[in-house]
Every structure is written in structure tokens, then in C-alpha cells.
Queue: 2 jobs
Job 1
Amino acid sequence: MGQITFLCVYLVLSLAQGEQINRFRRKIPDNILFGAGTSAYQIEGAWNIDGRTESVWDHMSHKKPCQIHNCDNGDIAADSYNNYERDVQMMKELGLDFYRFSISWSRVLPTNSPDDINEAGVAYYNKLINEMLKYNITPMVTIHHLDVPLQLDALGGWVNPNMVDWFVSYARVVYELFGDRVKTWFTINEPREYCTQQSSANKSGINEYLCARHMLLGHAKAYYVYQNEFKAKYGGKVGIVLNSVWYEPESEKDAEAAEVKLQFELGQYAHPIFSKSGDWPPVIKDRIAAKSAAQGFSESRLPEFTPEEVELIRGSSDFFGLNHYTTDLVYRNNSVNGLYPSPSYQDDVNVITYQPETWEKTIAPWHKVVPWGFYKLLNKIREDYGNPPLYVTENGCPTGPGLFDTQRIFFYRKYLNAMLDSIDEGSDVRVYTAWSLMDNFEWIMGYQDKFGLYEVDFNSPTRTRTPRASVFYYKKVIKTRKV
Ligand code: NOJ
């Protein structure tokens, strides 16, 4: 049976059964908003159009193209720069409450000077926002989503302390330009992913922590710029987006190893902002100090925050933004000795992670479907950080091509149920974002891993979008408010 026929059969069956099944489906609390997400470099294209300058990803994909799967790049991507009306139509078709997208720094500030605003770039975001508002779809905007302007990357990116002020000036510009219509701001997306994976600075067991320190300071200062200069006028909310896998101990004896891993990956960024005491998590401070001393450093490789900085960062987020995709098992035994270079971030954590073959696979080697891990992570955030308002800013399942994406439908059903289990126990989840509205440039994996509710035909000049079966599922969840 062809895919379209299959899709039709699925639709007819689900419509026919709809009413009966509805009675048994689980109710979603009324206060949860549903949306879908994307980011600028992953969908916009128009990389050198209307005055935009290069980001690290343009540069890397042009200079070392084959580091990326199939030597792909984001030059055209889903061409959302020219397809924004179709994108909004898709949001409307889905019945989304909101859409999370990001602004390209080098499109708005091509020379990185806050006095040199690129009006053509600004016009694109105005058109997109205004089109969404026509249909009552709320814009939720990420200010910085992994696409560091090339000129700033050449100066060290977030390893350079000046990046803090450069970012804060950029944030002020976007609050000023769009703050009358945008009431939810995400300062920085996935700082840990950038600092330990994507940053082009050498991974030395030093730069990762400098980077974390500067991203936390940049976030907090941008938070206070909004509080002091815009909040009274616009009344919006500002927060950070952190990402974490759930780390499950392989056995009881590995509980400490799993906790250390979670503290490095999530706590390093969450503890300074969301814990009562602020500052780095104690376990990270202790481990890096001890390792640094043993390695002959005169002081810890983990830079300290001054007491004023601890206070600045503590509490600097109106909500806990969380991107979550999967779960790993964690253990530590003698085989870890000498496994990682010393000094290094991996050596500081000093654990081994893996996913058992028996867990449900997806197309991506790093990703397995483990809904109970989402439940445990939400509970842990509730317990460790005093139950902050939680925005699930990304959750999704990679698949191969094709419209009949049953795995994605089941993924969402299972993960939404896991989220409801955690809400039943008291977690204050307010926002759920499916990643992604449409297929896009999946960083190092190029266009191979598809995350889209909508399929994008990357061979068609107009980048045609077609709904996958999961569109009909997600739409129904949103409409009936039942999983
Ligand atoms: C998190 C990132 O924010 C997003 O850019 C990426 O596409 C998804 N994870 C899927 O890997």
C-alpha cells in the first residue's frame, strides 16, 4: 500500500474510532500550552541574503563540508525565510497555542554592533511574528540557539569573557525590536551542548568551564536587562533552556556515578540558577578541585563565581526550560581508569554511559525511546529545585523519511503520558513543545535524521511541506486535550 493510501486509512480509522477512544484517553490539565519548535540556522536558509553574515555553522559547513553527514549545509535548509506564511499555516493546521523559534544573531546584527541593525533581517522576523499573531499563535523566542556569529567565534566565542556583554547588547536589541509582541523569551538554548560539543575552542577541561561561566553570566545579565528596562512596559517572562538526558544507574552501586553525571550535564547550569544556594553544584567543585590539584594545577580548573555573581545568577529565570530526548545507563568500574584524556571534561566526570540493545531503537544512534526516564527527570527537577514552573521546550523522536511515522506518534503518546505521571505527583509543567514543526538541518547529521511533524522535501525548489501522520495525532491531542 502506498504511503498516502496508508495515511488515508489511518485517518478514517482514527476518525471513526475517535469518539469511543476519547472516553478512555487521559485528560491533560487545562493550564498546559502546546507548541512546536525550530531554530534559525536549522530552517531559515537565506544564509547570505539581505545582509546576513556568517555564523560558525555556515563557515564550518562550507570549509569542512564533509564533517557533516552527506556534506550537507543550512544554505537553504527548509527555506523558511521565504516560506514563513506556509509555516504559520502549518501552526494553524495543528492548532498550536505557540511556536518556539529562534533569531539569527548574525541576521539582526551582521557586524555585531548593536548600532548596526539589519532592517531586512528584522523585517523577516516582524513578518513571521505578525503573521502568527493574526491567528492567535503566541511567539516564544529563543535569542541564541547554537549559531554563534563567525566574527565572535573567531575571538573565542563563549570562552571569551567579552561574549557576556556582546550577548547582552544583542538581547537588548531584540527585546527592543520585538518585545511589544513577544512575551516569552529564552535567552540561551542548551549551553552545555555548546560548551562541551559544538564550541570550536579546544576542549581542554578548562574551556568547557569558562564557557559555562560566561553563558551563565550572559544569561543572567540578559535576564536583568529585561527586568530593569522592559518588564514594566511589556510584562513578559524570560528564562533559560537547559538540556538533559536522564542518567539511570546501571545498578545500585552506580547511584553515585549517575548522580555525578547528571550534576555535570544538567546541575552545572541548573544549580547556579535554580538551587537555593546558587553557585556550582558542590560535587562538581570538589571533584574538579581535587583532580586539578592531583594534576599539578595551582588552582581549580573550575573558575569561581564571586559572591556578587552567585547572587546575580541565582533566581535569574522565570521558569525552567528543558529539552529532553532520551535516557542512558551509567556505571563506573575499573575500566574507566585511563579511558579519557587527562585533564578533560570527560575525565572529570569519569563514568561510562550506554543504552542497552533491548531498548527501543530509533534512527539516531544516540536515541532510544525511554519514557520513564522523562518521568524520572521531571521528578528530579521538581525535588532538587523546589518545583519551578517547567517549560518542556523540546521533546521529539528522530525517524527516517516517509509520511507514516507511527514511531513518532507512539513516542509522543508515551512521553506525554510520562509527563502526566510526573504532573500527577506534583510537577508544575506549563508548556510542552514538540521538536520539530518540520524537518530541518540536524547539525552534524545534516538532513538524515528527520524530526518534523511536517516532512520537508529538500529536493524541491520550494521546499514543499507535507503533514506526516503525527500531525493528525498531535492535532487531536491539542484539540481534545487528551493523550
Ligand atoms: C536540541 C537542539 O536544541 C536542537 O537544535 C536539535 O535539533 C535537537 N536537540 C535534536 O537533536
Note: The pocket of 1-deoxynojirimycin is lined by residues 39, 42, 189-190, 323, 394, 435, 442, 451 (CB under 6 Å).
Job 2
Amino acid sequence: MCGIVAYLGNKPAAPIIINGLKRLEYRGYDSTGISIFENSLQVYKKAGKVVELDNLIGSKEFTSTIGMGHTRWATHGEPNDTNAHPHYSFNQSLSIIHNGIIENYNILKKELLNKGYEFSTDTDTEVLITFIEYIKSEANCSLEEAVRQALTSIDGAYAIVIMNTNNPDQLIAARKGSPMVLGVGDGEYFVASDATPLIEHTNEVVYLKDQEIAVIDRDKFRIINIEDEEQTPVIQQVELELDALEKGGYDHFMLKEIFEQPNSIADSMRGRVDAANGNLTLGGIREYSKALANSKRIIIVACGTSWHSGLVAEYMFEEYCRIPVEVEYASEFRYRNPVINEGDIVIAISQSGETADTMAAIELAKSKGAIILGVVNVVGSSISRVTHEGAYLHTGPEIGVASTKAFTGQLSVLIQIVLNVARIKGTITESKFKELLTELSTIPVKIKEVLESNAQIEYISDLFKDAHNFLYLGRGYNFPVALEGALKLKEISYIHAEGYPAAEMKHGPIALIDEKMPVVFIATKDSSYEKVVSNIQEVKARKGVVIAIVTKGDQLIPAMADHVIEVPECHEALMPLVSVIPLQLLSYHIAIMRGCNVDQPRNLAKSVTVE
Ligand code: F6R
């Protein structure tokens, strides 16, 4: 959580930083701040979004060519002006921005209080910078050395940048567990949580590794590790288009990303799926493809929406590869002493590639000898760098906090992995393989067709925008879609919603059904269609209001349901790619009608880098 950006160069720093913070706002948006050097170290900060900071600064013309900024997702201390970053050290000689959590801050705070230091905020970050100031004055050493020494005593995660009032020509940056990228421009340097604030300035970046410290001066930078060993920086090129970071004429990133799905799915298949010739090439999974095919079981670890795509993958792997699959919430897996054997395959699914729980689950599995494969969207992200092999989604940046195109991108890549394994194992016939590959290649066109129902879905949304509860039901491959539909609705519209396997309804949730309860059935024509029809009848018998996602041409369910949204016919294993689209649009429209900020829902952040 939290976005950080810093600049040292020859241009005024403030506008570059504010602009960068706007790009990083998806990471957290409950307070923001900036530190610059105008004769002395200055900090401006405010609760709320970057626009509040912009208003606070107003027309002040800063000349500082060094600075750093922060957009926060609160962990320690409520999101108010005081707790916003940057934070000064006790004597205000240093300022810091921080993304992460200092777990042992309380012990350090007590020690510093005993030595006479005082604190003006509730944050762990103020403790860290004051601790650095303390070491600097005690050891009478350089800031670089004080930071290094301090970090050897820190438990937890951090991406930090520090400014020093006694040296306005230097930034010190360091990371462990939280992402950080250093941008190398022409006579200027940038530091940020990801590459999005940098790409309008430079595409040359260095991804800092854990426990590395960057010492950035006006004419050079160096990287050391916390053992004080000099590191050789590897400069890489980022391939990110500026257009991908803009709304492109849409009112919200979420809507843009929903409508991008025909293209993003095509991108996830580009160079991999050759349906015409029945070929499938997954360049990212080569060395371990046989190990995957021979594995006795697969464990999938993920969180949230990515966990839902893991559930779909479970069905696909078991059906076509005959390999048992366990889908684990990364946050549970990491703490429950799971049985992991040498050579087990663990697939980690993550849009951001930065989710702390997924990262910790990977580390645990890796330490027990498992082979880790990643299904990740953000290129160069932490998870993509710790996995043995993997396949990127290639769906482009997802900026709306609610995941949409990443979900369908994950499903596309996962079915490609499944088909590859099934072919190697011989658990799929050649004709079935080709049928599914061909079907996959038609998904972009089918999604386009569903998107044409946008106006109808907007109309239905208007009828239900004031509901207090929703139930989402589906069976088989559509069960994870029900979970995903419910998650989308609650996270952006704040309406309580539950997703259930349709047959589970009678074991409890049926008690909720009355004439006020909208029940969304994902009821497309598949192997459990008749069973779902019975479940719809059970809801109607109790006066529930049914909104059904049905296969085009279905006549039975439209005769029973109150509202239907049609989707094109599709193989059931691939149906989630199509049947989720109306649910994304339904939640988007309902949230907009309720006046919610769909791109930045309350209390949430795009990448959850704290546990
Ligand atoms: C929901 C959503 C979250 C994420 C979850 C995992 O719309 O976006 O539930 O899916 O935080 O994030 P990643 O995929 O980045 O690991």
C-alpha cells in the first residue's frame, strides 16, 4: 500500500512529484504529502486525495529541484493531516516517505522516548526516521551509514526515501518487501513504487532488490546492500505506453478496463495461441512444463479476485489434466503449517505481483522445495522476480482498484497453461485441445457482443441501485463467477453481497429470500443447467427477484426470471471469461448511480503490500 515518488534533477520537483502521485493514487488515497527543499526542508501534507495537496500548495512557485511525495493507505494511525507522510525526524533535519510496516516500531519508540525523543504522530514511520537521526548523531556518521545501520535493526517491510536538510543534493532510498524502482533520466533521477510515474520522463529503470540502498547524488547514483557491499545496478528498459495510463475518453478507469477486455484477452493470447494450426506456445513456462505435467498435486495461492480465478483454474486442471488442485487463500496458507513436499508445484496468481500475503506464501513454499510458477500482470513486479517461471497476463496496466481485465486475463493464461499440461500429459484428445483453443480465440468477439448489452445492464442497475443486499449464485465453472460478481458489487457500491454455489442456497441463505432480495443467477447452458433451473424455481417460489445471466436463445429461464442478460454460447470451461462481463458492468453502474468513487473505493488500495 501507499505510493511513493521522488525526484532529483534540474527541473522544479514539485509538479513532477504531484503528477507522479496522481499516477500512484491507485495504491492508496487517504492522505498525501510532499517534501521539498526551499532553503530548508519543507513538508506540505493533507488528509484526502492528491487534489487536496494540490489545493494546499495552490499557486506557490517552488524552485526546489529535489523532492519526494507520498500517497497513503493508512496502517498505523488514522488518516489525518498529522499522520500523512512525509514525516520529519525529531529535530526536523531529515524527512521520510515510507510504504510498508515497521513491525518492531513500538520497541524502538520506547527506547527513543527513554532517551528524550518526542513524537508528534502515531506512525511507525516517524519512529524510523527518528531512529535514523539518533544513530546519525550518536555514531557521528553519514546519513547513508545511519540508514544502513538503522535498517539492520528493522523488522517488517519498507520502501523509503529520505531527504536531509544538510545535503539538499542527495536522496537516500531503500527497500525490503515493498516495491521500488529507480528511474535514470538525462541528468535526473526518479524513485517510485512502480514505473508509472517515470515513463513520461525515462524508460530506463533499475528495480531495487530487497535490502538494497540507493544513494542518489546529482551526478551519479550508487547501490549498496545493508551489509555495506557495493552492488552493480542493472538498468532495464520498461515497455509501458503513456496512453495505457490515461482514461482514454472513458469516465472511469474501471469502465475503460471493462471495455478493453476484447483487446486485453487478445493480448494475453498474442504469440501464444495459434488456433488455426492447433499450436500453443507458452514461452515463460518451458523448463518446468514437464514437472508441472508430472506433478502429483498443484497448490494455487492468491487473494481476492485472483483467488477466484484460481478456483476456475482448479476446475480446469482437474477436468483436463487430472491433477488434484488445492486453491488456498495466501493469507491462510502462509500461517497454517501446510504440507508442502519437495517438487510440489505452487502457482501464484497476482495482478499486481506485490501482494504481501501471496509473496509470503511463495517464500514459504519455496523454502520447502516447491517449484513456483507465477501468473502475474505487472512486469518486473516482486512476485514475478521470485518465481521459478511463469506467464505474464500482458493485459496492460489495471488502474481501477476493482479488478476486471486482470481477472479475465488470468483466466485466459490459466486455460493456456492447462491445455499445455493436458497435451503433454496426454489427458486431452487432440480434437478437444483444438476445440478449446479455437473457442479461446473467439472469446474477444464474444466479450465484445456482451459489451453491447451495456445500456440494458444500466437500465437493470437503475432498478436495483437501492437494494441493501444481493445474492449471487452459480454452479460449476460459474460458481467462482458468482463469488467474483458479489465481490465486485460490494467493493465499489458498498452493497452487501454474497456469492454461493447455487445448490448451497438451501443450506442456509434461502432464509434470506423475500420479495426485496435480488438474486443474480449465472445460469448459462452447461452441464449443471437443469439443476440451476431448479434453484431459480426455489427462489421464485419464495418471491425472490431473479436477474439471470443466460445463454443467448435460452427460452426456459427468461420465462421464470424477472430480468435476463444474454451472453453468447460458449464452452463451459471458458464461460467465466464471458459470464463475468455483465456482472462487472452491473456493479459499475450501480456504484455510479449511488455516487460512489468506483476507481478509488473507500478503505481499499490496488496493491495490498501489507499483511
Ligand atoms: C478485487 C481486487 C482484490 C485483488 C486482491 C489481490 O477487485 O482487486 O481482491 O484481487 O487484492 O491482488 P493481486 O491480484 O494484485 O495479488
Note: The first strand starts at residue 3 and ends at 8.
